[in-house]
Each structure stands twice: as structure tokens, then as C-alpha cells.
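Lecture 7, part 2: worked example. A protein chain together with TXE.
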Amino acid sequence: MDSILNTIGGRQIAPHSEKWLPNIEPATGQPYGKLPESDVTDVDAAVQAASAARDAWAELGGQERGAHLHALADAVEARSEELARLESIDNGKPIALARTIDIPRAVQNLRFFADAAHTDRSEILRTGEQAINTVIRQPVGIAGVISPWNLPLYLLTWKIAPALAAGNPVVAKPSELTPATAARLGEISIECGLPPGVLNIVHGSGGIAGEAIVAHPDVSAISFTGGTETGARISATAAPHFKKVSLELGGKNPNIIFDDADLDAALAGSIRSSFANQGQICLCGSRVLVHASRYEAFVDSLVDQASKLRIGDPLDDKTQQGALVSAAHRDKIMASVEHARDEGGEVLCGGGVPDDLPDRCQDGFYYRPTVIAGLPMDAATNQQEIFGPVVTVSMFEDDDEVIEMANATRYGLSASIWTRDAVRARRVAECIEAGTVWVNCWLLRDLRVPFGGVKHSGVGREGGEEAMRFFTEPKTICEVP
Ligand code: TXE
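Predicted complex, written out as C-alpha cells:
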């Protein structure tokens, strides 16, 4: 069995308690390794290593920090195939997806913020003849990073890259369900000469190691992506310490197909936004809202294409739908679909476990792409994040009705609109309560734009300058000449 180790102070080390958690391969349901079950003592060691590295890393300057991040990006890119395979085994995602999305995006994250490190963000504001205010931005301090399992290396680097670029040492805890690529990143960071203590990666459960990071008095900022309930708990723990907190949480995103949409493009986009990564992306469009005049034809095609998605071994190049991340998550999805049936929903396709899996995958955590019709917007199925390959379809008559339907959940992360009418697209986009609205596309990302959600989808924004602002504190120096 492969053992994963913590990266603390530039060394690979076992948890002080010698306690371990099993690492399960979702495709087979079998344990294939173990990871540290770190606790408050391991987290404290990581925070001490970060404290020791803090001043030197801040004083190094943006150019040098950028050079370190570029070196890390190059080293990750050179190991792309190895990392894609690790990600696919650890998470259950199709290797084709890990090769084309997860690992390339991790490299891009590191490169983007390597370049962002060079910019001087100071501002000068003159108070007439009386004074000169210089606003400088200084590193926030030790950054606590807590990342989820759905896009493991992609989301971990999305957080650690700006934190490091802005001059902060990091203590990161990847999801205990998918620790492999983060552990490899820790090793790579040592191999490519990142100063010891600058990037510390502590593995373990959220309730123990994660809580210890959030509660540690020397950690100044917490950047978290994960479930809304966990986000609420993190907020409550961090608040008495007055930490900066950035939370990227769940979604129940509408995917709106207007009568004037390019239906082929909308269908292809909807298949991706419904089922990419087995629907385990916070940005997935889990409520498909279709204009009444197109409803029947569109839903028929959606069901047809969803049923044809190739489910199989994630390590097979041709697989389009891999395994769900864990047995518990698969069971939660199953229960959600059963609840949808109880609520009166009609399961148009999927709604169960595939029966034609390869031998190796018989005990894996699979679920068929599922489309459910006939539920009102206030049904639990349309309100709760399922986070799996399950979408509902609903009909609307006009723009005002669909805006109301789109906004009728506690979430507000993203939306997609498919229409040829640019004026309508802009009006509807402005009325939708969400951090991002895509028009005639989905998951088209520019790393410079703010990224995050409103309502219960989160607090704060990541990406570009927003991330650099989050990981720095402004200081005003007011000088009278
Ligand atoms: O996420 P958690 P879970 C949603 C999705 C999913 C639900 C639960 O709906 O079904 O959340 O998933 C760490 N203090 N998303 O339970 O618990 C944990 O170890 C500090 C949406 O897997 O939020 C992991 O590293 N940390 C989503 C990270 O938080 C804690 C991605 C995320 O796990 C902690 C994943 C605590 N008390 C799930 N408890 C998205 N927004 O993309 C847990 N953690």
C-alpha cells in the first residue's frame, strides 16, 4: 500500500500519532493506500514551519516568488501524465478529463499567479497640497487553505498560487478523499527548491486537521472551497479570531434554454454542464429550464444523449463517466433520486447503478446520468445540491417567469443562458442572482475575472486581482511633506 506523507518545513513526514486513514479507489471500491490522520500537533508543526519561513518569503519580492512559482509550474507540467493518472485513480474521474482539464489548469493557475506576483499594487493618493497617502499591500500572514475532492489539484493550486505569489506561507489541507496529487505536489515543491516552510501540506480529516487550521491563532486567512454547511462552520470558528475568510460553496445552478437558442450548441453545452466530472462540479447546471415551445424536443435529445454517455473504468481513455468519489456520496445521490421519486418526479433516464461495468469496477461507486422531470421549483430536488450526475428539467413560458425560477433557491453561484438575442441575454443575466452568468457557453474561464457566489454559495471572490487582494492587507502611509 502506498503511504502519503505530510509536507512540513520542506520535509516529508508521517503524522506524529502514527494514525492513518485509508485511501480508497472509487473505481474499484478498494483501499489502495493510506494517508496521515493528522491532528492539532501536526497542524501546529506546519504553522511553526510557516512562521519560520514567513519573513524571508515576504522579503524575497514578487519577481523571485514568481520565479519559484514558474519553476513549480514547469515541474508539474513535466509530470502531467503521472499526475493525471493519480487524479483519475484517486477521484474516479475519467483520465481524459484529468489530462485535458485538471492538470493543465493546475499548471495555468501556478503560471498565472507567478506572473501576477510581479505587479506592484501600491497606490498614491494626494490630499491636496497637505499630504501624500501611499497605500501599500502587504502579505496577510499565514494562509490556511482547505480544498475539496472534486477538482483536487486544480482547486488546491487555485488557492495556494495567489497566496504564495502575494508573499504568504501556506498551510494547506486537501480533501481526505483525494490526497494523492496534493501529496505529489508537496514532493515536487521540495524537488524544485521552494524554500522550506513556504508550502506545508497536512493531510487528514476536516473535523480534526481542517478545524485545527481554522482555529489556529497564527493563521490569518482561510480560503475554503467545499459544502455550504462546512462553510458555515468554518465561518463560525474563524469569526472570534477576526480572520479573513473566503468561502466558495455549493450551487444549484440554472441552465436556461430559450426558444431562440442554437439548440445543438445548447444541447452539447447542457450535456457537459449536467454531467462533466459526474456532475461533481460546483458550477454544473443542475436545473435545466427549457422554454415551453422547445421543451419536448430538447428534453428528448438530452435524455437520449445522457443515456449514451459511456460509463466505465476511469483509466480507460474512452470513458466519459467515471466513478463518484465515495460510497457515502454515491449513497447520498441514490437517496436524493429516491426522494425525487417520492416527491412525484418522473425519472426519464438513469436513476440507478449501471449493470455493465468492467470486472475491475464491479464494487466501484457508479451512478447513471439521470434526468428528472415534473417537479416544482420548491421541491427539495430543485432546492438541495445533489452534486452528482442528476439534473431536473422544467418548463417556462416567458423571461420573467424563468428569472423567478432561476432565483428561487438559496444558492447563487452561476447560471448559463442559451439564446441568440443579445439584448435578452444581457437583461436576464443582470437579473439572475449569481456570481457568474455564461451566455451561450459553460465553464469558459478567464483567470482574471472574479469568481465566487452570492447568497449561500459563498463569501468573497477568487481569481485575478480579487485573489491578490484577499491574500494581502492594505496599509495607508499618510505623509505630510
Ligand atoms: O465537503 P466538505 P463534503 C458540496 C456537495 C457535497 C457536500 C459535502 O454538495 O455533497 O458539499 O461534501 C474539509 N473544518 N461540495 O462533505 O466537508 C474537508 O476535509 C475545516 C461542494 O466532501 O465541505 C475537505 O478538505 N475543514 C464543493 C473540505 O473541507 C473541514 C466541493 C471540503 O469538504 C471541516 C465539495 C471543518 N469542520 C463538496 N469539515 C464545491 N463548492 O465545489 C470538512 N472540512
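The longest helix spans residues 95-116. The mean pLDDT is 98. Keep this in mind for problem set question 3.
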